[in-house]
Amino acid sequence: MAEEKEFEPIIVGFFCNWCTATAADLAGTLRMQYPANIRPIRTMCSGSVDPVYVLRALLGGADGVIVGGCTPGDCHYVSGNYKARRRMSILKTVLNTLGLEDDRVWIKWISAAEGAKFARIMNEVTESVKKLGPNPIGKDWSI
Amino acid sequence: MERYAILPIGKQGVLGTVRQFLASLLEKKLVDALLVPLELPTRDNVVPTIVSNPEQVQAANPLAPVMPVNAARLVSRITMVSPSPDRLGVVLRPCELRALVELVKLKQASLEKLLLIGIDCHGTYPVDDYGKFVKESSSPTEDFLNRVREGKDDPLLRKACQTCEYPVPMGADLTIGLFGANLEKGIVLVAGTPEGEKVIQELGLEAIETEERQPAIAKLIEERAGKREELLKQTQEEIRGLDKLMAALATCINCHNCKTVCPLCYCKECFFDSPVFEFEAEKYLGWAKRKGALRMPNDTLLFHLTRLNHMVISCVGCGLCTEACPNDIPVSDIFRLVGHQVQKTFDYVPGRNLDEELPLTTFKEEELPEIGM
């Protein structure tokens, strides 16, 4: 009998152009590995990530979503990262209140200089989502 | 500090007294026009109307237990392009006033030159039930107030109203006070602002003290809050979890009526009506292939979850979304449940205070540790 394949989640990453996306580049330049499960999408600011995009990913079959923004005080647009945190807080509260899995949504602050932190967090997120297993909403035809 | 005056009720009755008061605002030029619900000639509904002729105020009926639209939308419509050039009195229920405050914060309305006249709200019936109620009664408004006075539960009241813990207008210049008032004798007129006090002075009304109003309000709020707790608990049992949630939304046909009537959904073009949600055929077939099947119209859950994310922080619980749903989805109950949690996170009560910033337009450097950044 064929060995059962390990669950490989699909995780959509929305990374801010100025910090987290640059950190991803840096991780690559430093030859640091991060899981291929992450599907990065570069955005101009974490504050520009409307919850609808996160929901779109989750309902469309992604097993997890991570939003990455600048560290406190470093937002290229002054306060987009703080506002992103409030948006994601509301999103998680909405999901949690309705009994949907809010722990598939992450928001992290990773600066342009933190290539190692980027790789570490992507590993952590991937491990967590693997433990959660496949996202049931993504498979539901009736949503 | 609130100040009270009395509007004595003569043989013209409660409604007649309110009409007389509104007419006197126009006659004494304290306002140039009023936005107030008027009884239609057929009498089976009341509709918000801009009235400038005092005689036509004789058809006004802000006490009729029905709210076909949330009039905050209409104040937004009137003052959106430019503020009112003349003094406009707007007669609003508490949820309409709260929605208006939210719309002002969202830069969708202007309070300039407005006189905010709130009414103590006993709640409203669905529009069609009100139509039936009117046919069965010769003086429906008085009958309704009598029902209220008897203090029994009124099953005709909309669920949103039965469970509304904000029956008193917040931030009104003047409030037509019914709670705790002896309606055989007089209506209490409450001045909440210097603007309101000025009107009371100009009208030469007798200032009074009232001991009954605050306890009556406290009692009503306690009752309503109890019912709200029951509603939240029951809603949670009914919709929590993907299966139950989808069962609740099963009959959604993506008509977006709930969005259309929502006083807070202000976008000129909704994301969901935009080309962002127009796809090539191969997309639909691709989704169907991956999942095995695809419900059409698609994205019903996405629509409701997104609207919750965008609007629930400002949801005043007027309940018109549920009224507008052709398939009786308890949209408002879901918004009440989620709104309760989200608003609690930011200690925010929509429409409580014009000076409180919208939670999504501001932030604190240290907050929300549970997000785990």
Would you mind describing this structure in some detail?
The complex is a heterodimer of chains A (143) and B (373). Chain A is an alpha/beta fold. Chain A has a single domain (12-132), classed as Rossmann fold, CATH 3.40.50. Chain A is 41% helix and 16% strand. A 4-stranded parallel β-sheet of chain A has the order 2-1-3-4, with helices on both faces. In chain A, helix 1 crosses helix 4. The mean pLDDT of chain A is 95. Chain B has helices at residues 13-27, 72-79, 94-105, 127-135, 140-150, 159-162, 194-203, 213-239, 242-248, 257-261, 281-291, 300-311, 320-324, 331-345; strands at 3-8, 33-39, 46-51, 88-92, 114-119, 174-177, 186-191, 206-208. An 8-stranded mixed β-sheet of chain B has the order 3-2-4-5-6-7-1-8, sandwiched between helices. Chain B starts with a strand and ends in a 28-residue tail after the last helix. In chain B, 42% of the residues are buried. Chain B is globular and about 75 Å long. The model of chain B has no long low-confidence stretch (mean pLDDT 95). With 373 residues, chain B is α/β, with parallel strands linked by helices. Chain B has 2 domains: 3-227, no CATH class; 241-371, no CATH class. Helix content of chain B is 40%, strand content 12%. The A-B interface holds A 50-52, 55-56, 59-61, 72, 79, 82-83, 85-100, 106-109, 136-137, 139-143 and B 236, 239-242, 244-246, 250, 271, 287-288, 290-295, 299-302, 305-306, 308-310, 312-313, 334, 337-338, 341-342, 345-346, 359-361, 363-365, 367-368, 370-373.
Instruction: Please report the distance between the alpha carbons of the first and last residues of chain A.
Output: 35 Å
Number of DSSP strands of chain B? Answer: 8
Shape assignment of chain A: globular
* Unreliably modeled segments of chain A: none
| SSE order of chain B, one letter for each helix or strand | EHEEHEHEHHHEEHEHHHHHHH
What is Rg of chain A? Answer: 15 Å
Helicity level of chain A: 40-55%
Strand order across the largest sheet of chain B: 3-2-4-5-6-7-1-8
- The share of residues in extended strands of chain A comes to 15-25%
CATH architecture designation of chain A: 3-Layer(aba) Sandwich
The topology string of helices and strands of chain A comes to: EHEHEHEHH
Count of discrete domains of chain B: 2
Strand numbers in spatial order across the main sheet of chain A: 2-1-3-4
Class of secondary structure makeup of chain B: alpha/beta
What characterizes the major β-sheet of chain A? 4 strands, parallel
Say what the CATH topology of chain A is. Answer: Rossmann fold
